[in-house]
Amino acid sequence: MSHGVTELPALDAQRRARGRPRKTADERDDGNRRQAVLHAAARLFRQQGFAATSTRDIAAAAGMRSGSPFYHFENKAALLGAVMQEGMRSALQRQAEAVGAAAESGADDPLPLTSRECLRVLVRNHFEVLLGPDSDFIPVMLYEWRSLSEAQRSEVNGLKAEYEAAWVPVLHALHASGELQGDPGLARLMIFGALNWSVQWYDAARQATLDDLTETALLLFLKDPK
Q1: Which stretches within 106-208 are classed as H helix?
Q2: What's the mean pLDDT in 80-99?
Q3: Average pLDDT estimate for 135-151
Q4: For a tag on the chain, would you pick the N or C end, based on fewer CB atoms within 10 A?
Q5: Dihedral sign, CA of 35, 39, 40, 46?
Q6: 8-state DSSP, 68
Q7: How far apart are CA 19 and CA 4, in angstroms?
Q8: Who has greater pLDDT, 69 or 88?
Q9: Which CATH architecture has domain 26-73?
Q10: What's domain 77-221's architecture?
């Protein structure tokens, strides 16, 4: 790490369940309907706000009868928590895939990716999660956090901590190399605050690309290595 080089964050191998019976067509379709409810709710919660969105609105957007969402979720509050949890689980998966792809692309290199390159991967993926396709889930978490119960916040916070854990060794390595001059813990909070705020102002039709945002963010957060 004294040379500004760090391994990509370790990724847990995904375990696949074995020996389970195949799901029936009805069971598979039931899962699809649940996802349809989640996606419709995420879109409407983001556009209209949690308080202004009714379960009737969500059912209509998902192409269901008005009472159908209650088959999958106890009430609208439970659906809000599920939207945020789904968003964080998806973000975790996408982050793992982005890091894994970067590690695989550099497999023939005798040196691992530099800390700066690791952060670039993490920042670029985070912008994709926030601003790319199917990006309603995380903004809902940012806008509607106070609408969660304590139990729901605890569940979502656990997923957030897992997501941010991949950034910790990278930021510490950058601090050790002198590229990140502030305290790594405080820097992490400020970096996420800055990146997350982009959902308020970014317009893909008029603004820079996500790659441009990534490079600008790195210039703001880091100084040139020694």
Answers
A1: 115-131, 137-143, 150-165, 168-177, 184-196, 198-201
A2: 94
A3: 92
A4: C
A5: positive
A6: T
A7: 45
A8: 88
A9: Orthogonal Bundle (1.10)
A10: Orthogonal Bundle (1.10)
